[in-house]
Write a structure and sequence with these properties.
This protein is of the alpha/beta class. 53% of the residues lie in helices and 12% in strands. The protein has nine helices and five strands. Strands 2-3-1-4-5 form a five-stranded parallel β-sheet, with helices on both faces. Helix 7 crosses helix 8. The longest helix is centred in the C-terminal third of the chain and has 17 residues. The radius of gyration is 16 Å and the shape is globular. The structure holds cytidine-5'-monophosphate (C5P). The site of cytidine-5'-monophosphate (C5P) has 15 residues, from helix 2, helix 4 and helix 8. It catalyses: dCMP + ATP = dCDP + ADP; CMP + ATP = CDP + ADP.
Length: 201
């Protein structure tokens, strides 16, 4: 059976770590779809119109080294609210999901829009405070000048925009398993997710 795992949830909830761990455990390819929106948003900061940025995105754009900055995250969520931008990025993501060896995709609308037929869906979440602390530590450790309050404010603003937009808003799919990682070590979250995937496949 070709296995597709869909992982959605707000920023800094642990989607990336969980996705990489599941991809490794089950021998699947992994696509971080947030990177596609970040790369698109990044290009608009240089003055490229959003739709053009999405339509002409190249592999090199996905490898730019400043995709993890707060400014790019904000630009990503602004372009991600535009239906025409989302439409331009759908085929690439669905083609990736159909790879013969199976795949893990993580983002905001994977279980609801990109891969509604995925065999396993997770919605990974955590409290605002815990997520802000994690993202703050990551940004600080990679040399960014940030404050915990600033990071918390940015996350809340971005989550609000991602949840309130009309086009593919962030929400758990009806058949998603919700994992709250607030009080859990990542190892425990990964172990629980591996158990659930094994049980469902
Ligand atoms: O996951 P990450 O924080 O890198 O995503 C950056 C932004 O890209 C999100 O805040 C969201 O606006 C957008 N995004 C999206 N749909 C996805 C993945 C990301 O709208 N599947």
């Amino acid at each position: 059976m070709r296995l597709t795992i869909a992982i959605d949830g707000p920023a800094a909830a642990g989607k990336g770590t969980l996705s990489r761990a599941l991809a490794e455990a089950f021998g699947l390819a992994h696509l971080d779809t947030g990177l596609i929106y970040r790369a698109t948003g990044r290009r608009t900061l240089d003055g490229t119109p959003p739709l053009e940025a999405a339509q002409t995105l190249s592999a090199a754009d996905l490898e730019a080294d400043d995709l993890r900055t707060p400014d790019v995250a904000r630009a990503a969520s602004v372009v991600a609210a535009l239906p025409e931008v989302r439409a331009a990025l759908v085929d690439f993501q669905r083609a990736f999901a159909r790879r013969s060896g199976g795949a893990v995709l993580d983002g905001r609308d994977i279980g609801t829009v990109i891969c509604p037929e995925a065999e396993v869906k997770f919605f990974v979440t955590a409290s605002d405070q815990v997520r802000a602390e994690r993202r703050f530590a990551e940004l600080r450790d990679s040399g960014h000048e940030v404050t915990l309050d600033g990071v918390l404010k940015d996350l809340r603003e971005r989550d609000a925009r991602d949840s309130a937009r009309a086009a593919a808003p962030m929400m758990p799919a009806e058949d998603a398993v919700v994992l709250d990682t607030s009080g859990l070590a990542i190892d425990a979250v990964v172990a629980e997710a591996i158990r659930l995937v094994t049980e469902k496949t």
